[in-house]
Structures are given as structure tokens and as C-alpha cells.
Design goal:
single chain; alpha+beta; Elongation Factor Tu (Ef-tu), domain 3; 6-stranded antiparallel β-barrel; 6-stranded antiparallel barrel; 12 strands; globular
């Protein structure tokens, strides 16, 4: 589990195609201070496993499914990526619950200055609309952010200078693809409410059928 508080900006130094996906090699320093083989590191919000490492780099294998569903399919050598180690049990919960399981990709539409910071507008796919609420939490490329404004197909986030400096947000080009992970709590609530909303008669018939009646 992660919290969406980025620890450093890494740089993809090599991508090697494989039959079942690809292997990424990422230059890094901070996240390697205590990293070992098998540890989880979020790369632009995607939970990956360290499979090899050196003094200033680590490698992670990316499945074909992950490439298909995330912006990593567009990554290239030189791409700057947000990095975060999995949260330690005794760590501070600085952001919100982030699994590193991308729900979909969005489109970076614009960034406009706002005081000392910035306001970014991100377009999102329709299937994620029901999980995004104003003042709620959302993860953009692994960054825990708050929805400041919400439209039918877009949301806006207010970014302070520190976040702009230590993440990849300042490097995004218009129409760039970003990874989105909605609040896991919303998905669990939806699942539970769907169960309780089922007609009792249907549940009773199913139960009777299972009992052989």
C-alpha cells in the first residue's frame, strides 16, 4: 500500500521488450536507500516489484496487462517518473489509501497559474465518473491530490509549488496520458450497496435453488 506522497523523481533509463511485457530500468536514489529484491515501488502510480538493482537504479518487470491499462506503454528512455516506496507500518499516513492499481488513464488538458501554484485540468473516462467527487481524493500518476473542481468529463486539482517541483506534473505536455486511481473506499461502498440493493425475492429464489428446492 502507498499514500501518494512522492519521494523522488526517477528517470527511465532503459526499456527492454519481453514476450510477456517489458522490463523497466529506472535511475533513482532515495527509494533505493533500503530497497531489496521483491520490494514494491510505485512508478507513476503503478505498483511494481524490484527484480534487480544497482547502486543508482532498479529494474521491474511490467506485464502486458499493465502496459495495456497504464501510461507505461508510452514511456521511453528519459521519461521522468514519480517514485514512492510501499508505506512502512510505522510510517506517517500523509496522503490517502493508494493501492498502486490503476483504474484508468486520463488526459492532461491544461495547467494555469494560480497564485504561487498551479491549477491542472485532467480529463477522465466516463466509467470513472461515479467515483470522483469534489473535495475527494484521487491519484494522478501516483500523486495523492484533492479534486478542487469537477465537470462531467474533467476534474481540476490545485498544485502547490512544492508538489510541482518534486513530481512530474511540471513536465507534462498537453494531451499527455496520466494514470488515475480513484479512492478505494468509493469502490467498496459501491460494491456493498449493490449487494444490499438486490431484490429480496431474487436472493430468496437463489438461496432456495442452491438448497435444491
Amino acid at each position: 500500500m502507498f499514500t501518494g506522497i512522492i519521494e523522488e523523481l526517477g528517470v527511465i533509463r532503459r526499456i527492454t521488450s519481453a514476450r510477456a511485457g517489458a522490463r523497466l530500468e529506472v535511475s533513482a536514489h532515495t527509494v533505493l536507500s533500503d530497497a531489496k529484491l521483491g520490494d514494491s515501488i510505485a512508478v507513476n502510480g503503478v505498483c511494481l516489484t524490484v527484480v534487480a538493482q544497482g547502486a543508482d537504479w532498479f529494474a521491474a518487470d511490467v506485464s502486458a496487462e499493465t502496459l495495456r491499462r497504464t501510461s507505461l506503454k508510452q514511456a521511453a528512455a528519459g521519461t521522468r517518473v514519480n517514485l514512492e516506496r510501499a508505506m512502512a507500518a510505522n510510517g506517517r499516513f500523509g496522503g490517502h489509501i493508494v493501492q498502486g492499481h490503476v483504474d484508468g488513464t486520463g488526459e492532461f488538458q491544461e495547467a494555469r497559474p494560480s497564485g504561487d501554484g498551479w491549477v491542472l485540468r485532467i480529463g477522465f473516462p466516463p466509467e470513472l465518473a461515479r467515483y470522483i467527487v469534489e473535495k475527494g481524493s484521487i491519484t494522478v500518476d501516483g500523486i495523492s491530490l484533492t479534486v478542487a473542481a469537477l465537470g462531467e468529463t474533467w476534474f481540476e486539482i490545485a498544485v502547490i509549488p512544492h508538489t510541482w517541483k518534486v513530481t512530474n506534473l511540471g513536465t507534462l505536455a498537453r494531451a499527455a496520458t496520466v494514470n488515475l486511481e480513484v479512492d478505494i473506499i468509493a469502490k467498496y461502498v459501491e460494491r456493498m450497496m449493490a449487494h444490499f440493493a438486490e431484490p429480496k425475492s431474487k436472493l430468496t429464489l437463489e438461496t432456495l435453488s442452491e438448497l435444491g428446492y
